[in-house]
Every structure is written in C-alpha cells, then in structure tokens.
Write a structure and sequence with these properties.
2 domains; oxidoreductase activity; Thrombin, subunit H; about 35% helix; Glutaredoxin; redox-active center; disordered N terminus; four-stranded antiparallel β-sheet; alpha+beta
Amino acid sequence: MRLRHLVSLLILLIFPILPSQGHAKVEWSIYRTLNLDAQPLDVAVSVNGRWIFVLTEQSDILIFLDGNLEDRIKVGNHIDQIEVGPREELLLLKSRQNKTIQVLALEFIKDINIIESPFKGPVDAPVVIAIFSDFQCEYCKALLPLLDQVADLYPDKIKIVFKNFPLKMHKLASKAAIAALAANSYDLFWQYHDRLFDSQGQLSDQKFLDIAAQLGINQKDFEREMGNPQILSIIQKDLQDGQKAGVRSVPSVFINGRMLKERSLKGFQTVIDKELNKKESAH
C-alpha cells in the first residue's frame, strides 16, 4: 500500500494535473510559526490541533499549546519518530535503531481560572478542587456525596470551587446556573446549589423562585438579580475556561489543575495526597 502511494506521488510530480475549466484554486495562509532552538526531526499534532509536539535533534520533545511553548521532555537519542496516540495525553516514541515503540503518558496541568467562582473551604487552601458541573446532570448530582466525604477528610486542606458548564442538551441548565449565581449574591450559593440538585427532576422557572423563597430571598429582588448581565458573563467565562481545559463532559474535576481520572474516594485521596506532599517538600 505504501509503495502504491509513492508511485502515485511520482506520477503526480511527473505529470501534474492540469487545471480544470473552472479554474479551481486553494487559498492559503501561514496559520502559525513555531520558533525552535534546534532542528526538528519529527512533528506530531493532537486531534484538536491545539497541542503540537516537536522532536528535535537534541533529543528533546518540545510541547506547544496554541503556539506557546509549555514544556520540554528529554528523551533518548535513539528516538527518531513520534506520534500522538488515540488520546492526546498518550505519545508514541518510536526507535528504528532499537526496534521499539514506547508509550509516553503525559499529564497536562491546566490553569483553571477561579476568580468570581463560588467556593467553600479555606481561601488559601493548598489544594483547589475545581468542578465543572451542570445542574441537570445526574452524574453531577451523584458526585455530591463523594465530595462531602472528601471535604470531611481534608477540612483544612481543600477548597472546592464550582464552575458552570451547562450542556445545550439540558434546556434548563443555563437558567439553573443563573439562579444559583443570583443566590450567590446573597451568600446562599451552596444552599441553593444543594436544593437545585435535590429538585433535579422538577426544575422549572417557578421552582427557581420557590427555592429562593425557601431561603428567605425576596422574589422581586431575586428576579432582578437573575437579570444581572454580570451573571451571564461569569457563566460564559466558565464555559470558555472549561473548553480551554479540555472539558468534554460533566462532571469534570480538576485538582490543582490535574484532571481527575478516577472519580472515587481513593482517586481523590491519591491526587490530593500527592499534591500535599509536593507542597510539604517545597518548604
């Protein structure tokens, strides 16, 4: 098959295709230029095009995100080809000399913006758990008891931050997010948050007002706050933050920027303890 492709390419080079009567053309422009400090040997690009990996003659793999150099990894000088795996966090390192393929697991640390986001726990907690969630998502609701367990285990060590990521398939998710942030202006976000999830199957415009009334919020004041354009701005920012962090589904949990892969008590403990140990080692 490879030989056939090479032969086809040679034919095209020797007998170039004549332009059609319609004078079809391809418009092009240089999308991005990466400045390197060594000659490139191979390049691999993630499916979404955001991550670019460059293998250099100095046996470094340069890791670019959206055109910016994020990090570099030193590999053996026997590595002569690289390829992105089925998931962008897997990189295949190929060596023709050693006749090997190594699977390199990458862990991307995301910078999650938590300014203006509701949180509970110490302001200066060493571990920040950011959760992208949707009030109509049953899996997000199922995560709550586990989060309570984690909070009980690390009362002074973690801060839990709520990030809105309402899915388009959930018709009332955006309105629920607006209502919860309106309650946040009365310092009642988490109480409202809990009642929204408790009423997940009965959400409606009236239910949003009823929950506010149960928490002692004046209806007219609450409706006025729901119309605050700053709330929509916060939700839009949360959505953008989630997209930048690679959120594809909810709930998505990040612990100090690391996406949590195992949503279990053990999974939380493993990552939290690792982060706490890093903090202690740094002092």
